[in-house]
2-oxoadipate dioxygenase/decarboxylase (Mycolicibacterium neoaurum), 409 residues
Amino acid sequence: MSTVETWQLRAQFAAALSRMYGAEVPAYDTLVEVSAEVNADHLRRHPQDRRLGSLERVTAERHGAIRVGNADEMRQVADLFSAFGMYPVGFYDLRTAVSPVPVVSTAFRPIHADELARNPFRVFTSMLACADTRFFTPDLRTRVETFLGGRRLFSAELLTTARQIADDGGCPADEAQDFVAAAVACFALSREPIDRGWYDELSAVSAVAADIAGVRSTHINHLTPRVLDIDALQRAMTERGITMIEAIQGPPAVDGPEVLLRQTSFRALAEPRRFRAADGAISEGSLRVRFGEVEQRGVALTPRGRSRYDAAMAEVDPAASWHRHFPATDEQMCTEGLAYYHGGDPSRPVVYEDFLPASAAGIFRSNLDGDAHAPDRPDDTQYSQHWMADRIGHHIHDPYELYEKVACT
């Protein structure tokens, strides 16, 4: 019996999620179509940009986003995704953003260069920070924890199978399809009626909190294709009559090496949902929580480069002051130790594979009608990368260490 390796399972998982999400959110298929057109056109005009990835890899590339309620659910996600060769990398605290979101996050992705080349699927996974008293009163926290304790996102059988696949590095071919289908089904949008009063109470704290703890399941919040020219994508989608968020998130468009990550999305669309009133009556309604995101990835920055990036983004006009912080060529970026390049070769940039917390929060916030405003007082919680790693029982990789290893190849 042949074995389906974890990277092959990952590719099947990503493709199946994309099909499901396209059926649930048809505008996503338009986004994928336009992204492919933009990429093909861009490489015809700028063939040198293949250095950031082949057309095949860029066109196939996706990242997803999901949200869970507590560390137990995050641990289950970690166990499930390990079967696809996806491991937690980085820690993101979206509570510290200009538009705070009461979640802490990590990204599950392949960690080796050869695995990324085979299939780079990654899932940005956020966990509700209900211990933060700046957002949640003690009473509400208790009720949220009770609600979360009464739901189960993944079956025990699925998680047992996932752990076995992770240990074995794959599974028999005749089991792969059923396993992938079962995993994908966990992220389908539920049609179960939503408790209107409970959802509205959480929405008063944060729309994201309601999306996480106001329903009895999780779902794909968005799927993200990758483009080589996000400004062209923004224009093309607008020309098709699709409303995009106002500002592309991340570094500005400048002449010179593209760095880190730029993101945009179409605005979350109203999706039909069913609601249950206090008297048990069921009614039809809608929610705006899911959207289509797209990203453009550049070279990964070193800690020194990231420090300069943060300084540039703190300027009143980052685009106008960009060249006070960054040189105009990859050769200079490499010489000054600002970015990672394979073998120190400035013609071979190491692609940034991770996320930016300010951009993630900005995307979330741009797709909400309103969201949380944390009081201006110190955080008294223990949320941190060490805390999360301990609670989920999985090592959370340092992205800089991973880029250092890739740059040595």
